[in-house]
Structures are given as structure tokens and as C-alpha cells.
Amino acid sequence: MSTTTIEIPTSNKTQFLHETLAGLxxxxxxxxxxxxxxATGDRIFQQIMEMEEYYLTNAxxxxxxxxxxxLSQAISADGTAFDLIELGAGDATKSIHLLKSLLDAKMEFxxxxxxISEHVISDLEENLPKKLPSLDITGLNGDYFDMLQKAAELSxxxxxxxxxxxxxxxxxxxxxxxxxxxxxxxxxPNDLVIIGFDLKKNPQQILAAYNxxxxxxxxxxxxxxxxxxxxxxxxxxxxxxxxxxxxDPASGACKSYLISLQNQIVNIGRQVIHFSENEYIYMExxxxxxxxxxxxLAAKTxxxxxxxxxxxxxxxxxxxxxxx
Length: 324
Known about the structure:
This protein is of the alpha/beta class. It has two domains: 28-51 and 216-287, no CATH class; 53-202 and 289-323, Vaccinia Virus protein VP39 (Rossmann fold). It has helices spanning 12-24, 39-49, 55-75, 95-104, 118-131, 144-154, 173-185, 203-210, 216-231, 291-300, and strands spanning 3-7, 29-30, 82-87, 109-115, 137-141, 158-163, 192-198, 241-248, 253-260, 264-268, 271-275, 280-287, 303-310, 316-323. The strands form three sheets. It has an eight-stranded mixed sheet, sandwiched between helices. Helix 2 (39-49) runs antiparallel to helix 9 (216-231). The protein is globular. The model is unreliable at 1-10 (pLDDT under 50).
């Protein structure tokens, strides 16, 4: 077992400031959901995944718990050594089932978890080897594509990219196409991608998952304002913003906003941001897909759909694509 951490010299805080100001000085205002995940955001998201209303975690967990052997067979079909690269690894509570299955099958692979959160990577490197002592793990802290390129420099083996948890749903359909095209540019023919998609279903069920009765999702969104106050010298009055979620069953777009409850001024460092009463900040999208939409996305971006793994209720799918 070997454990290595790759850290990029950061300008992470500078980028956080630049992108936050760019979003809040736009019309309409927006923020980037990737900045939800500081240490507090990580903890709140763990609570979200345990919510009764948040069906996504259990649906994908069921796939990984019950079908990891089949996934392992699909990944290792050609018998060659490979690198398993997970984008947005989180705490690996789902992917650990796949990792264990691959180790049990004596597959030759290295695991490269990628996450923008330093806390997540350090936690993975400390705890995963305790559970899987023979795992060869190299943690990569940074943006997906920068770190995917880094992984390619570290190893020239075949790549299997995991992008789970419906993270692709945090993009509009157009942005998902751009993402998949950029991903393909960093891969080689016959490399594989396993992507988790949340499927379209009853609209009330979807909306409840993003507007829970316990207010945990609300806390998750508002925590980004607290993070800006702490890390970027901001002075948001968090009590003067409210969380609002909506779902459009036609497009499959579930969106979250923060609404300003009054006319107010917020300072971030030396920058002044004006808010009108009822003005919104667009926080994130959680895009839902039909199966035909998923196959079209693959074909349009240069991938060939190979297999689809569903939970029993068909709430969720982990789709395996091959670089065409």
C-alpha cells in the first residue's frame, strides 16, 4: 500500500474571491456550487445525504452495494492494469464498495480521488487505508480537469473515471455537454467513464429532496455566505437571506436560490455589493435526466454507452461509457 498527496500551490483563495465577486456583480447574481464544500459544508452535506427526503444517496448506494461485482467485471473486461480516478470523491462511502470489489478480484489498479476540498482529501488518505490496507491511493486536491491532467502525468495506464452522486446534475444540460467534451479530450480510446445520473420522477419527490422540512438544505446554501464572511472578509447578514427551491418537470431542472429579504449592502473586502429586496442569487442546479437524454449526451460528446446499472426503483442510474 502506498499513500501520496499531491497539493497544488494555491491561489485557491484568490480564485474563490475572483469567482465570487464575478458572480455577485453579474445580472442576475449567481454563485458557484463548488464553493459550498468547506469543512462545515462537508459536514452539512453529510447530513443532507442522511435526510429522509434525499433519496439519491440510498439509490446509488444500493447500486454500489449490490452490483459492485458486475461493475468490477465491466471495468476490468480487458484485463489490463488501470487508474481509477474519482471526480468529487467526497467521503467515498459509496465508492468504497467498488474499491473493495476490485481488490477482492485482485485487479491491478491505483485509486486517485480528486476533490476541491483539502479536508476531504486528507480525511480519505487518513481513513481509507485503515479500511483497505492494500489500496494504492494518491489524493489530488484541486479542480477536476487540472487534477485529471496531473493524474495522467503520474501514470500512463488506462483510465477509468468515476463521476458519481449525480454531480453532473450540478450543471445545466449545455454545461454538461461542455464538461463531457472536455473530459473526453483528457482521455484515450477505450478509457471508461462511470457517471451517476438522477432520473426524472415524481416532481413532489424531487422538490422535497431540495427543500427538506428540517431546513438542512437551507443551512447548506446559507453556509456559503458564512464562508465568504470568514475567508473573504465579507459581512453578509445571513438572517437577511432565505432559501428557495423550484423544480420544472418539463426541463428536469431543479434550482436553488437565496432571496434577499430587504434592500441591503454587502461588503466583500473592498468591494461593495448592492441587493434589492426580493433579489435572488442563483445558487445551484440539480438537473434530472431521462434515459434517452443520457444516451444522447454520450453520443453527442464522443462516448459510447456500454451498460446501465439501476437501483430497484429506477430512481438513479450509474452509466458506463467508453471513449469512442
